Amino acid sequence: MSGVWVFNQNGVVRLVESPGGDSCQGSARRKVLVHVPTNEVVTSYDRLERILSSLGWERYYDDPDLLQFHKRSTVHLISLPKNFNKLKSMHMFDIVVKNRNMFEVRDM
Q1: Closest by alpha carbon to 51, among 67, 37, 32, 68?
Q2: Which PANTHER family match (predicted)?
């Protein structure tokens, strides 16, 4: 993933990817979320929920279209698409940032 971070007029930042910058012979690399202490690739929401729960995150059930997790000791909220197959690298990096040293995003 290479490119430039750009701020929109409303202050929201987004990544504008460079064409061919970090590609593998024209095809995009698949990203995976890895739980660092066990070196395990997270392959389902069931597994992710167990890990997050052990780290103090609680599941919110307010929005039927999202999986949401909140940690009482912080203002952080993790919002994920209901379908695990729609989990994108931006969701993975959100989990990484809010759980320092516990997760990594790696190329497959």
Answers
A1: 37
A2: FLOWERING-PROMOTING FACTOR 1-LIKE PROTEIN 1
Domain definitions of the chain by residue range: 29-107
Residue pLDDT, tens place only, 71-82: 988 899 999 999
Amino acid in position 1: M
User: What are 2-60's pLDDT values in tens digits?
Assistant: 677 777 777 777 777 765 544 444 456 789 999 999 999 999 999 999 999 999 999 99
The phi and psi torsions of 41 (rounded to 5 degrees) equal -75, 130
Parallel, antiparallel, or unpaired: how do β-strands 31-35 and 3-7 relate? unpaired
Structure tokens at 21: 């910058």
Q: pTM higher than 0.85 for the full model? A: no
User: Whose structure tokens read 């919110």?
Assistant: 60
Residues 72/93/91/33 CA torsion (nearest 10 deg): -100
